[in-house]
Design brief:
CATH class of the largest domain: Alpha Beta
Number of domains: 3
CATH superfamily of the largest domain: Alpha/Beta hydrolase fold, catalytic domain
CATH topology of the largest domain: Rossmann fold
Shape: globular
Helix content: 10-25%
Distance between the termini: 42 Å
Structural class: alpha+beta
Number of helices: 8
Radius of gyration: 24 Å
Largest sheet: 8 strands, mixed
CATH architecture of the largest domain: 3-Layer(aba) Sandwich
Number of strands: 31
Amino acid sequence: MLLIMFQSLLMKTTAQDYQWCVSIDGYTSTETNSNPEAFLWIPSDCNKVRGIILSQQNMSEEPILNNIKFRKTLQELGYGIIWIAPSIDQEWNIQKGCQKLFEKMMNDFANKSGYNELSTVPIIPIGHSAMATFPWNFAAWNNDRTLAIISYHGDAPCTNLTGFGRENIEWGRTRNIDGIPGLMIEGEWEWWEARVNPALSFRMKYPDSCISFLCDAGHGHFDVSDEVIDYMCMFLKKADHYRLNDNELRKLNPTDGWLAERWNTNTINRPHTALYTEYKGDKHDAFWYFDKDIALATERYYARSLGKKIQYIGYKQRAKFVTYNPSNHAEIILSPILHKDGRTFNISAVYSDSTRSKLSSEHSSVKIKTRLINGPAIQINDTTFCLDLYRIGLNNHRRSTDIWLQAISDGDSYYKGTAQQINIHFPYRITDGKRKSIYFESLQDVKRNTKAISLKGKSDSGLPVCYYVKYGPAHINGNHLVIDNIPPKTKYPIEISVVAWQYGINGKYQTAENVEHKFLIK
């Protein structure tokens, strides 16, 4: 009965993320031994794309790109998203050919989508952690096309501490990002002075640079809070307002902006934020902001955390604490105990002591929220999660069955906000048990006024068949494919890819081979 209930919950409608897909020909990923793929989303009411958020697969990029508030802001601005999976270059070292791959990808999307402006549209590169250096380097080699830069829980430009752990590339004596607004975000619980100092040094070395900084107070390396989404949305709106005029990018003058002192853990008496020319603090210890509005928003962000107590979060599975290992990047790793369906598991986030091994009464009054960071999973309720494959399928070895969750407490008037990630491993494929196969009836081309299509898949194991949309303007609702609103300038025919899958049950049924069907809306 429990299994049937969970399956019915999994049938809930979810929005499809990306309408188009192109292969990154000319590059072979070491993860998949095949070409990476790039996915394009354009708002359904967009008549002209004014900017593109460019991201490569890593970690926290996905919850940012899929956030409802973030997408709504992009819709208001007329911006789209391109997400590349697996990634093609952490450094954006043009000697390896990434620039040519990028330019061909943009031309391919322009030709395929009907939005010809994609060939030349301004770009906002964004990257997290191991991908946090890529946005700065992309901008250095695409100076006349980069609208803004976001390095999330990441790196300073030209840092000696790259997120990918190797030496940074050399920009050259005359190459710079002068006049391009860049935002570096670092979480309070990952704080490291050695990451902040290169950003301040860069501002001094390149006085025409426009480097903003946000300490994500009360948050750590992996989490994506509503507050940081709001801040990034404000940053994008400011960049659009001050820089973009009919696809022409204005070069910003930092002296027209505002300054605010860098974040310090316990500094309460901070110099007042002010116009660049009127700032009374040490300019060598301050960061640049577009205007008074976002400078004061930064100060308010910091004030939420100052002078408050620290609290901690641990995880329990079947009433036992999951082991905490601070020397591991994930800190908490779990092999889940699964329900009879072979996919569903329970885990609860609780307030704990600093060892994450005992319950604690020293915590805020707010309820802990648990969210998906990355990976093939859906959340059924506060404690129940389920493996749920999506567009990367079972061919992306590093991420295919690797799930990351985060538990967040926003804090209150006494305690700081906090967050704790957990990494959950499913077997990449189940190879123990009976072999099985999926029969998925092919899908015929349809006309553009079609609303929904019945999906007819079955397995010789008798287990239910699941589906996901790899790309195309559609989403899954139970055993139906529902066609979404199609952007007005779309070039027809437009292709939709639907994948039928079945993970199996360890010891009983092996993982079935996915079956992909494509059809056209004419």
